[in-house]
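Can you give me the bound-state structure? Components:
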Amino acid sequence: MEQGYRLGIDIGGTFTDAMVADADGRVVASLKTPSIPDAPEQAIFNALEQLQKASINIADIGLFVHGTTLGVNTLIERNGAVTGLLVTEGFRDVLEIRRLRLENTTNLYGDKALPLVPRRLVKEIDERCLASGEVFRSLNEQQLLQSVEELVQEGVTAIAISFLHSYKNAGHEQLAEQLIKQHYPELFVCTSSGVWPQQREYERTLATVMNAYVGSQMGGYFQRLEQGVQQYGLTAKVLSTMSNGGIMSSTRASSEPVKTLLSGPASGVIGATHVARMAGLNQVVTFDMGGTSVDVALIDGQPAYSVDNQVGDFPVIIPAIDVTAIGAGGGSIAWVDSAGVLKVGPRSVGARPGPACYNRGGTLPTTTDAYLHLGILQADRFLGGQMELRPDLAQAVLERLGEQLGMSSYAAAQAILDVATANMYAQFTPLMARKGVDPRDFTLLAYGGAGPMHAFLMAREVGIRKVLIPPSPGTLCAMGCVVADLRNDFVHSLNKVSDELQPGELGQWFEHLGEQGRRWIAEETEQGIELDHTYLMYSADIRYEGQAFDLSVTLSSEAYGSIADAEARFHQQYEAVFGTSQPESPVAFVNLRATIIGVTRKSETVVVPAPVKTNYEAERRTIVFDGQEYQAFITDREQLNVGEMLSGPVIINEYDTTVFVPPGYSLTKDRFGNIIGEAEL
Amino acid sequence: MTDKVFLEIFKNRVQAIVEEMANVVLRTGFTAFVKETGDFGTYLLTPAGETFGSPLDTGYNLSLGIPAGETIEAIGDWKEGDIVITNDPYATGGMATHLPDVHLIKPFFHQGKIVAFGMCFVHSSDVGGKVPGSVSPTSYDIHMEGIRIAPVKLYDQGVLNEQVLRLFLDNSRIPDQNWGDLKALMAALHRGELRLQELIVRYGLDKVEQGIVDLLQYSELKVRAIIRDIPDGSYDFWDYLEDGPGGYPIRLRCRMDIAGEEIFLDFDGSDPQVRASFNIVTANKQGHYMLVPALIRYFRTVDPTIPWNSGMIRMVRNDAPPATILNPEPMAAVGARAATFIRVMDVLTGAMSKAQADKLPAAGAGQACIVMLAITDPVTGRKKVGVIQPICGGSGARPMKDGIDGMDFAVGHLRNIPAEAVEAEMPILIERYGLRQDSAGAGKYRGGSGIDLKVKILSPDTIMTARNMERMQFQPWGRLGGGVGQVGAAIQNAGTAEERSLGRIDELLLHPGDTVTFLSQGGGGYGDPFLRDPQEVLEDVRSGLLTEDAAETLYGVALAGQGIDESATAILRNNHQENMEDFSFGSKREQFEQLWSDEMQRAVGQALRQYPLALRDYLKRRTMDKAEALAQQGVQIAPDDIVKLMKDIKCQTGMH
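Here's the bound-state model for the whole set.
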């Protein structure tokens, strides 16, 4: 059987995108089908049916990677398992106290997020380890089982176990897990040392609780999916995308679902990284604009990672591709406050009723209505013409807004775009400052439903000179699925000052982490994933002894065991951030980390055609922009010749979005089909 | 306000600039205060010194109303490239309020004209003085608290004044870190200047200058609209810091006058400045940032879209009488002013509660105590100092919901330290770190629960400090029938034969096996607890935050097995007289105020004014001692008697 095809499917809020690439990395099919929130797997079956109709032999698919928002939705909608939590005696309130800090100190009516496990379902267990890992009190097995029985009586179906210092000694957690599984085989059980063995009881416990909370839902879903796809003749193992941009088997994703929670935005960034690499761009900021906000991420050769992520109400310390939501989206509502000042967002209309121009009962002006009214968006070409927009409805709501502001509907529409851009700017520039980056050295890579429409406005505001819009910008996440690698992260909390380390100790710990990685890869590849090659990356969180914060230092792939080398790199990096360093001061190694990457076979020549071949005549249309009328050149991507240069305003209609290149920017199409815009001055 | 679309754009751009400046400090600042507690700030100021931009998301954000005008005037001759440094409360007219807050100011020029000033501060980990960290509650004179730097040019037209720098750094225990922090602040100022220039290039100078005017006015208008809805009147309130001179509480008193769209805060009746470091140098600047945060927080709660600038407090006037704790004469010590600042918030919240009965929360825990340990490592012999935990308590209940457990608005920016990190760092065992049962003030909406922290010491000769413990006697007050929260407590060796109550801890010597338990305050309740939904009461019992006894006595909810005993509950509740008491202050405070009524405390304050500053602390405590002793003997003491009592005491000293 020739199994050269690779299938990527990304389930989004509105659409499920599918993409098939052949063994050489050429995209042979790409499509969109509506998502089905109540039964997400059904949308996948629909996509498979459509692929069959497009004469794709499903049996030829050797690799099937898919990303789902099920986990994150379960968390946000709070409809996960009734979860119980077992903690060390004295720490019942670890979820209640959190890290203390209030989200907003200026709101007297604010709330802290309701814990996923209510206090009455948290049981204190008689056991204790010390910071050294030494057992101080052994696990009271009888009391443990008694507590579990009480939880089961309360209707608990999932149990998270998180004992103090289990990152040093996982013995008690493992024993507890074993006992529970033995006595209550039907429960979903996970341990904090298994999920993410890092020091910091709140964050580690939280990750474990989230894992338990979404675990059974995810397991059930993957089971239904695996059985379902077999009926279409799909024999490839189901793989899932992860928050770190990698992929893993669905079996493992079912037991470690907390690692998939941010996989949606992550695969978009992986897709973007691939596009950027082929286009020869190293430094890229992604700009994925949806209905309510814009997701931005930095790619500097590699995507930036973060261990300080947010999922819904909660922090997650497991490494994930660093994606931040900012500003406004296509559905953000424009309104006028009591002082007569125009605001855009933070509320948005959602898919229902949607912007006024959708004619689904929406009566509030949104950014999308503004695009349409100004002529940037074209009424009869939305979703390839499948959905007719109503300019009259947009005009009506904008006229009303204009009256409130004392201006024309066109001026009001422009004002919405300007304010939305200013909102984005207000969060974007401080974010870049925090990362220590000047975004003007970067290319803005835009995708998502509204990204290509707004990217140039954002670039202009920030002073970014170059914008790239990949082909089929609405399905970049599906492409991320197709090009992703196996990837997993491992951590060990060491907490030792360098002079306390035995010779060779650092190397031994890294070996230990590396071994975990290699074992993981071996298990994953048993399931039939073919890899091109495998490599490990090592890093450490290091600080000066006594200082309260650390730097993540990437270590040499050979000399990772060398204390001297690690210290030298730390001093150097410290110098780069703070302008000074103290090479004579003792250095503490807080966490040691290893990441293993199994590179999947792929050719570097992926060329992506548009999902639907559109064929409009080149035309000009009047648009209003910045208060002036322009004759914009209207075209689609296929009609552009590679290398030909056009000056804005240009509007490029795509199946699932519209590219707007304003005056002041010129554009060309490269040989990969990317639209590349550059500032003219 | 001219252009209401540009105004929103301009507001976003200004916010972006100050947030970006703050992030530059966050990324490159050295001290633990930057990373852990966000104790630093960035500002954009008008040429006159009014704050038109201040970050909300990063750093310390409650400093609108910071008076920079006096410093700007003091320098007078500003040149392009100047950067002024200062940390002195007295020389800046209350811009700095304690010495560790090192401020830098830079003028932002455009074509020879100052368009704005950029300002930053960071809480330095040390600026000299008698203790490491520079802040000690027992300092009684600002010279014990570190080096004072009156506004001086650190950079004169771009040229570093190395002598000034040297002078500052030589007087600190951590010169390198301080220099690092200064560089971080300067990087932020340069970034702010660059961004403002870009804004001028993009929109033109006129539009930017008009934007600044409009932005301040925009906030002002929004707040005036809020005040207009508050009934006119005078609203009195007072509250206390504990353990002041002679062990008596220190009173903070405010009369809040609302008239139309204006607010006047009269702090007359507040206690004299103290011979400790709790004084706040406000210089009675109007709308001073240490006086108004409770108002700002309230305004923003009512309207979260108010732009974050000093326009919000333009209509606030205040009078903090000289030589009081809120406007001390030089050279009173000021290091530990945070405790006072927290209580000022409570006082204004209380006063505003009288004006707006159904809008404000009951009192929260009202303390931010930092527990620290100092040990000598038995193996290396090295001395080690480390934070065990900041201890706050529950917030007050809100008019429509419960308070927040374990955390109070006043200190909402604090983060705790993972127990695992503490144990890895220090030879202690944290036996318990959780919420404190039965600590929350009962109410239709209950207060937030306090904290219960129990620490076991493993090494000999361990020194524990736990400064700024407050509300150990007077309970967090409840509202409209809601009960008081529990007071804080500290207990050594709880549950053993050696158990003893510690009261306020300054320094404690401990040995292996000793335990110390900290029980922090629950927030006050809101509304009659007998009106609380029995299901909510049941949930608190089932989750272990409330005992069954308390459910029955405080809430009139009887429980049977896992559920509610409906009929017993009905009997309990039907026989309850609804309690609508405006404030409940708890027995300790009521007891104190039996003798020390408002009039009596005022009488003491007024009598003291006849004497030189140096005598007041002594005369106050002796006079109060005397009055208490007389009252004990059954003698009636009236406010008019105080003058004579005090005079007698003065005479007994033998001084003329």
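A couple of observations. The two ends of chain A are 56 Å apart (CA to CA). The longest strand of chain A covers residues 531-544.
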